[in-house]
């Protein structure tokens, strides 16, 4: 089974999780990039407004075509209880191309159930698995057991071998 993990990350938490998932299920890794992204208050406020208004953001062309994969795993940070605008744009650009889907999100606090539900609705497809992890859980390493269950769901859906324990992702 060919698997693609597509994600957006501003702080690195979603990227870390995406890398662990990609390693755990031998997937290709696609970083969704916002070419206008920057640091500072202006960029933060623009991103916050886009998320609150359910708007997408300009994204760079992607390397992989999700239609070429049996399973696409999509990851987003939670912004103001919403999907990040670059992930929203990615999904809208590739709607109808996801054969099978899994979802994950990262956050500092709350909003996980809402964002996972919103992702499912936006993709118009029920996920075979979903995972939500807080920044604190990642810092404390508390997400590992749930991550292994998530990976087991991904691999079991294709009859593949069980995932290997988590390890650091090599530098890109």
Automatic annotation (TrEMBL):
InterPro entries: Flavoprotein-like_sf. Gene3D superfamilies: 3.40.50.360. This is Flavodoxin. The lineage of its organism: Bacteria, Pseudomonadati, Pseudomonadota, Betaproteobacteria, Burkholderiales.
